[in-house]
Amino acid sequence: MPTLSERDHAVLWHPYTQMQTAPLPIAIVKGEGSWLIGEDGTRYLDAISSWWVNLHGHAHPRITARVSEQLRTLEHVLFAGFTHPTAVELAEQLLALLPASQARVFYSDNGSTAVEVALKMVLQYFHNLGQPERRTFICFRNSYHGDTFGAMAVSARGAFTEPFWPMLFDVEFLDVPVPGRETEVLAQLDALLQRPDVAGFIFEPLVLGTAGMVMYEPEVLSEMLRRCHAAGVLCIADEVMTGFGRTGPLFASELLSEQPDMMCFSKGLTGGTLAMGLTTCAAPIYDAFLSDDKMRALFHGHSYTANPVACAAALASLELTRADACTEQRQRIAAAHAAFQAEIAGQPGIRAVRHRGTILAVEYDPGEGTSYFSRLRDAFYQLALDHHVVLRPLGNVVYLLPPYCTTDEELDLLYAVLRKMRELVLNFTPAPNLPHILHD
């Protein structure tokens, strides 16, 4: 009998995978807490929350009970002209927690579509106001906002999007205002804001995830938002990764003194249980679509918009996230990350160590440029698997983003793997001229 991995290989096509050369996928049949359990019984520590989605551990009983209850009540209803309790309750609870600038919730089904909704809202907002010439977006260089066409357009131009470049609308890129470059980036922004066609600024607040967990400070981002608002430019916070406690507070935007006009969510929204996206906006944006003219409405939707089961999972996850026990878990992980950062930073083979909240990134120094295509990537990946740890290195950058239930003993295993990676780097022979791109 063929294994599950062999059956998969005969019929499936996996994301971000060269199917001709990739090894057979690892078959996972069960999840418990921070662990994934393979078909052969092998246990793997999920150090990246299964692509950043899992907040509270796999198969969490509180979330599964709420999902089961909802399935027995209402599994789905169209959301045009209809509503249901979990959609209303989730929107009410989220808006009470988000910055006061947010007034309305629009549901979608993943992070890319949450971004697409925001981009379309911005463009039609100015169209409805009689300013259709305002259609240019400002983005950070090396940013990532998704894989649909609008989301790709406001993301980095690189090897993964190259086949589609002719189809992407033009945007203006800013350098990331990492410590020491704030003044330079503010000057770049000021120059762009002189243009009359700028409509929006979209950003990953404080942490650019697939750029290699590149981090910058809330003070400079707040100043950027102030300057955008003074120029009438709308600001979109893409909190698909940073939302729901990853950076410390519930939302990275809580650390800003100037608030965004729109926010995008997915990933941890349902605790990693079901696919769901969500975009919020300020009242003036929503008001610009109100009219006796039906053509001023936002013509966007999805078959599974505001799916009741996904909303139920999100409500259960949000309840867990707001609990004092979860706050203590996040603080414990953050403290452990900080201690490990202090230990390893500056050691041979280490270029940089970045840490915010429950996110830790180690940028190893192989003697060549930082690149998603670093030959270290596969070696790091296999080393982690050999120690029963699931990591997804961004080339020579390795990050930890574990579920909040991860114990101190489990964190120690992750740090031990990172130390072994440093030993591997010290014996690495570099290769020149790799593409400088980080993306996943």
TrEMBL record:
<dbReference type="InterPro" id="IPR049704">
    <property type="entry name" value="Aminotrans_3_PPA_site"/>
</dbReference>
<keyword id="KW-0663">Pyridoxal phosphate</keyword>
<dbReference type="GO" id="GO:0005737">
    <property type="term" value="C:cytoplasm"/>
</dbReference>
<keyword id="KW-0808">Transferase</keyword>
<protein>
    <recommendedName>
        <fullName>Adenosylmethionine-8-amino-7-oxononanoate aminotransferase</fullName>
        <ecNumber>2.6.1.62</ecNumber>
    </recommendedName>
</protein>
<dbReference type="GO" id="GO:0030170">
    <property type="term" value="F:pyridoxal phosphate binding"/>
</dbReference>
<dbReference type="GO" id="GO:0009102">
    <property type="term" value="P:biotin biosynthetic process"/>
</dbReference>
<dbReference type="InterPro" id="IPR015424">
    <property type="entry name" value="PyrdxlP-dep_Trfase"/>
</dbReference>
<keyword id="KW-0949">S-adenosyl-L-methionine</keyword>
<comment type="function">
    <text>Catalyzes the transfer of the alpha-amino group from S-adenosyl-L-methionine (SAM) to 7-keto-8-aminopelargonic acid (KAPA) to form 7,8-diaminopelargonic acid (DAPA). It is the only aminotransferase known to utilize SAM as an amino donor.</text>
</comment>
<comment type="similarity">
    <text>Belongs to the class-III pyridoxal-phosphate-dependent aminotransferase family. BioA subfamily.</text>
</comment>
<feature type="binding site">
    <location>
        <position position="392"/>
    </location>
    <ligand>
        <name>substrate</name>
    </ligand>
</feature>
<keyword id="KW-0963">Cytoplasm</keyword>
<comment type="subunit">
    <text>Homodimer.</text>
</comment>
<dbReference type="GO" id="GO:0051537">
    <property type="term" value="F:2 iron, 2 sulfur cluster binding"/>
</dbReference>
<feature type="binding site">
    <location>
        <position position="51"/>
    </location>
    <ligand>
        <name>substrate</name>
    </ligand>
</feature>
<dbReference type="InterPro" id="IPR005814">
    <property type="entry name" value="Aminotrans_3"/>
</dbReference>
<feature type="site" description="Participates in the substrate recognition with KAPA and in a stacking interaction with the adenine ring of SAM">
    <location>
        <position position="16"/>
    </location>
</feature>
<feature type="binding site">
    <location>
        <position position="144"/>
    </location>
    <ligand>
        <name>substrate</name>
    </ligand>
</feature>
<keyword id="KW-0032">Aminotransferase</keyword>
<dbReference type="Pfam" id="PF00202">
    <property type="entry name" value="Aminotran_3"/>
</dbReference>
<feature type="binding site">
    <location>
        <begin position="111"/>
        <end position="112"/>
    </location>
    <ligand>
        <name>pyridoxal 5'-phosphate</name>
    </ligand>
</feature>
<dbReference type="GO" id="GO:0004015">
    <property type="term" value="F:adenosylmethionine-8-amino-7-oxononanoate transaminase activity"/>
</dbReference>
<dbReference type="GO" id="GO:0004141">
    <property type="term" value="F:dethiobiotin synthase activity"/>
</dbReference>
<dbReference type="InterPro" id="IPR005815">
    <property type="entry name" value="BioA"/>
</dbReference>
<dbReference type="InterPro" id="IPR015422">
    <property type="entry name" value="PyrdxlP-dep_Trfase_small"/>
</dbReference>
<keyword id="KW-0093">Biotin biosynthesis</keyword>
<feature type="binding site">
    <location>
        <position position="267"/>
    </location>
    <ligand>
        <name>substrate</name>
    </ligand>
</feature>
<feature type="binding site">
    <location>
        <begin position="302"/>
        <end position="303"/>
    </location>
    <ligand>
        <name>pyridoxal 5'-phosphate</name>
    </ligand>
</feature>
<feature type="binding site">
    <location>
        <position position="301"/>
    </location>
    <ligand>
        <name>substrate</name>
    </ligand>
</feature>
<comment type="pathway">
    <text>Cofactor biosynthesis; biotin biosynthesis; 7,8-diaminononanoate from 8-amino-7-oxononanoate (SAM route): step 1/1.</text>
</comment>
<dbReference type="InterPro" id="IPR015421">
    <property type="entry name" value="PyrdxlP-dep_Trfase_major"/>
</dbReference>
<feature type="modified residue" description="N6-(pyridoxal phosphate)lysine">
    <location>
        <position position="267"/>
    </location>
</feature>
<feature type="binding site">
    <location>
        <position position="238"/>
    </location>
    <ligand>
        <name>pyridoxal 5'-phosphate</name>
    </ligand>
</feature>
